[in-house]
Write a structure and sequence with these properties.
elongated, homodimer, about 140 residues, mainly alpha, DNA-binding, Multidrug-efflux Transporter Regulator, Chain: A, Domain 2, 2 strands
Chain lengths: ~140, ~140
DNA sequence: CATAAGGGTTCCACTAGATGGAAGGTCAAG
DNA sequence: CTTGACCTTCCATCTAGTGGAACCCTTATG
């Protein structure tokens, strides 16, 4: 009962290309059949599902590699896992803060622009650092 | 009064490498001195500041290129600028929604993990799709 | 048996937006 | 003359895949 790459792709939802890529970078090591085709075990499939979920949660490939290692290590400490996840969460919080600020600025700019066929545009003025009525950070002369 | 790349870098806050890169992809076209050094005009410097700000606002390089074109086009319609910014804003909103959901999930996982020296870990269980007390999406049976 | 469809394989190129570094030219000061 | 701080180009690297070409394998059908 061999499992070819397409079967695994269907089961895990990962594109075949991605599965090959994951083998390439050493995340999985499927067997080979006599004809050269990859032969995936249930364990391989399980690992790929694990990776898929971890990637969906935004973990980097290197984090995924570590997490997979911890997953397979019966003697792991949950602290190690938690530390990785907590750090990732921190990064996401940072990114969120940045994006929220970005959104505010963009919202202000977009709503201050008439969006008609005249050339005058507060968005371009902001980009060119030409101060218009729409104020940005305090910078008096 | 020539302006070398370092001067422009200092003025705009952009690394020299980035400035060269921007020339490479055709965002600016500084003159050259006899010795081959780039010779930046005030206009070049201004454009780079514009690009720097636009990149800070998260616009893609291609958007930046278009925005710069519009900026220099006296006959532009502000609608064109607004459309680009509004679309960018939409993308950011989408990203924000994703990140917020991601954060919730991660927060739940991290806080459900003891983070001690024992191997049992709800985070790994989630990744391996092993259902523990911490519930994720409804998937009965 | 030939062949065509639908698998599989490898390998190389490309994406975005820079950044690091090597190898070498230029310039001003001491 | 040499030192150090500039400048130049070019190539490689990063993330996480994705697209495509060229080619091999398997199975069903005429």
């Amino acid at each position: 009962m061999t499992m070819n790459i397409k079967d695994v792709s269907t089961r895990t939802g990962l594109p075949a290309k991605t599965i090959r890529y994951y083998e390439d970078i050493g995340l999985i090591r499927p067997d080979r059949q006599a004809n050269g085709y990859r032969d995936f075990s249930d364990t391989d499939c399980h690992k790929l599902a694990f990776l898929s979920r971890a990637r969906t949660l935004g973990f980097s490939i290197e984090d995924c590699r570590t997490l997979l290692g911890l997953y397979e290590d019966e003697a792991r400490a949950s602290a190690d896992v938690r530390q990785i996840a907590a750090h990732h969460l921190d990064q996401i919080d940072k990114r969120l803060t940045e994006l929220l600020e970005l959104r505010d600025t963009l919202q202000r700019l977009v709503s201050s622009c008439a969006g008609d066929n005249r050339p005058d545009c507060p968005i371009l003025n902001d980009l060119a650092n030409v101060r218009t009525s729409t104020k940005r950070s305090s910078a008096g002369s």
